[in-house]
Write a structure and sequence with these properties.
By secondary structure, chain A is mostly helical. Chain A contains 16 helices and 2 strands. Classes of the chains: A mainly alpha, B mainly alpha.
Amino acid sequence: MNVKKRTLKQKRAALGIVFILPWLLGFVFLFATPLIQSLHFSFNALKVSPGGGYTLDFIGLKNFKDALYVDPNFNRLLTESVTGMAWNVPMILFFSLFAAVLLNSKFTGRPLARAVFFLPVILASGAVASAQASGLIQMTGSSEVAQELGLAQTGFDPLIVVDLLAHAGMPDLLIDYIVDAVQRIYEIIRSSGVQILIFLAALQSVPHTMYEVAKMEGATPYETFWKITFPMVSPLILTNVIYTIIDSFTDSSLTRMIYTTAFQSQNFGLSAAMSWIYTFVISIILVVVGALISRRVFYNT
Amino acid sequence: MKAAAMKNEKVTVQLYKARNITTGALWSIVRYILIIGISFVIVYPILKQISVAIKDKSDIYNPTIYMIPVHFTMENIRLAMDILHYGPLLRDTLLFVVSTTLLQAASCALAGYGFARFSFPGKNILFTFVILTILIPSSTLMVPMYLHFRNFDVLGIVHLFTGKEGINMLNTYAPSLITAGLANGLKSGLYIYIFRQFFRGMPGEIEEAALIDGAGGIRTFFRIMLPNAVPPIVTVLLFAFVWQYNDTFYSSLFMSQGNLMAIKIASLPADANQYLPALLGVGGGTNVKADPNHVSMLVDTGILLAIAPLILMYLFVQRYFVESVERTGVVG
């Protein structure tokens, strides 16, 4: 028999394949096949027949041309999601690192603070978040009333900040950025739950001895942060950037548009073409960002 | 001379001490302000929703009310529950979410272990594919998956035996259960990654000892490795549960008419508009319109009801939530 002759190594290999078999099956039938099919669909006009099947009509690059040149919204939404992502990622990253450092220091009531800070992880996805956002607007019925109430209630005038920063001699773009961050603080906090969690885990893994040495040598907390904490967590910055980028894309208006193109306009081929353009853009961004950051990252090995 | 110098030194040390204490105190004050401020931003919407949920209808137009209503009532909660059919809805949602979560955790644990502890030809390429499943947006797979489950037929087996077209699985639990069971569901790649990172960190001696004592690979996994893998299991179960509960993408793709919380909440404003007059007993004609403010009150209450199970769960498990992520070794 063949089985008897197999070495231990081969047996282990076979066992390993047994363990990943469910995933492998799923990958082949639920990921690779649909992926190729989707690429195939994007070059065809797809018609769903009422019985359950569908027919394909090869039309070449027409779907891609339609998406880029004919559809009135696709280009706009694509650029919007990309620029929105580029605008948001630094904010989220900065805030989550800041929050993680804050939560990592010892103080009374830390468990409570942690519990509150991670609440967004639970509430910040999909239906609940969007319903919540619309709920806040709807709270008072009409948007006019909401605006008036908002003005009356917040009493915070962003112009004060703008003025202050402008007098301090900051460039305009930076001022815009900071003011925008302040005004959308809820949105930023909401989307940085997982990132805080990852940074916090990274901070916990920094060896204590390093901080002790730094203290002995007379480093100020500021220096300690930039010379020890920051380099030590820098590999996780890459992870977090990639996570944030993917996360921002899973819930973007473009995804919703691709969805409605397929299931409301019943234009499956166009939808597949759109999603492929989208995937292509995302992969370019991920590769560029990954290459840029990983060169600067410090690995403590 | 000497005494004076010593006295001087003592004074400087005391001054340093005083400075340290003041900066320490100032820093902790600033820290508390920051933490309380950020916490307030996070908790505020929930507080506001609670305040709206217990507010009576007559308080809507009272501008003097801030957060705490004058007339308390359970009416909103009762109406929102009626409109959502909350009891059966919650039961169905939990059944669905719990079953997919368990399947997903199981299949991802197996795959993670396989990738972490065995070497077989093509392992690295296959693991690259796992990462690929994390990176490729799900909208790319949406159309083929939809058509696939609309006409479910693995390699034409169904067609071969019955001569009919495949089975329409849409609006059943099957598509989600199948994707979860085969470790290709919502964010499965991430869970496989978490399990792999954890199992890689476990000492190899444990497995060797088990092997010498006569346990096979599968038994080693279930009796030795899995009981030790509590942190990643907790992490994955929590995340899978929460994300599945909140997911609108797959649920609206596969079960657009399903009785799921995420779907019902999305259509709640419309439902409330439609059914509210009838529930209040003012007649159900098309001319009867509900007060939009009252509707939005009910929508808020409905959202609160939808997130209530999550918040309740979070109150009990948030401790593990933070700890387990730290111990999982995602970072390493």
